[in-house]
Structure formats: structure tokens, C-alpha cells
Amino acid sequence: MNARILHGEIITNRLDDNRAYDGVRTRRVLAFFIDYLIVGLLSIPFAILVLLLGLLTFGLGWALFGFLVPLVALTYVWFTLGGKEQATVGMKWMNIRLERLDGQPVDGIFALIHSILFWAANVILTPLVLLIMLFTDRKRALHDLLLGTVVIRTDR
């Protein structure tokens, strides 16, 4: 066991250390805005390709515009949140990362499920998804509770 004593408490796991959750809500919101700015910027070159494809196909290719941003966002999540650092670029800048409570690493498929569940829950239960973070232990959102994940600080 890799236990340590912190302020008189025995901490056996970094996920049990309350300091790992200080400021996580604010950092998650800021990371969200950073990541969607990045997704928006990454979408521009693909939008130009779809525009040209639409011109070549007399407008048929423009139907791809409806799938463009979600595909770019899901690809971004797969390679960042599903990567070895388990964090998107925005999350890295905010010094947070996604952790599974079962100790397994977050892979690409799990990262996609996490992201899709977040957006699906927002469509159905808009305010509840984030309001739940005010009342749960470890400042977990609805999709975190359903998937058994937490977001922790990496600088603690």
C-alpha cells in the first residue's frame, strides 16, 4: 500500500486526497471553453474542404457540414482525453485530468462515451448536469457519476 499522512489523515490513494478537488469546477468550465475554441479552429480547414467538395458535387457535399463539428470534436476527444495523459489540451492548461475510480486508464472509446454522455445529458437535463456538481462529493458531474470517473488536479 502506498499510504501517506497529510494533516493527520492517512491518505491511501490520490483520489482520496481532498486537495485534488480544490477548484476543479472552475477549471473544468475554463477547460471546456478552451477546448471548444480549439475544436472551432480545427474545424476551419475541414470546412474549407467541405465547401470545395460541395462546389464540385453541385451542393451535395455541403450535407457534410451537419457532421463536421461533431466529427472534429469526437476525434479531438479520442486523441486527447483518450490519450496517455487523460486530458484534453484545455484540461492540461488548467492542470486537471480525468481518472476512473476503478484505476483503469481512460482509452479512446471510454473518452468518447464520456463526451457523448455529457452532451446527451445536456440535451435532456440541461441545468441538472452541471448543478449536480455543487452537491456531489469530489465535485462530480452527472456523466462522471454514471461512468465512475472523477476530474482531479494534476498540480497537487
UniProtKB/TrEMBL annotation:
Membrane topology note: Multi-pass membrane protein
Record organism: Aquamicrobium segne
Keywords assigned by UniProt, alphabetized: Cell membrane, Membrane, Transmembrane, Transmembrane helix
Domain RDD stretches: 26-147
Listed transmembrane segments: 29-53, 60-79, 109-135
InterPro entries assigned: Pra-immunoreactive, RDD
Record localization: Cell membrane
Protein name: RDD family protein
Pfam families listed in its UniProt record: RDD (PF06271)
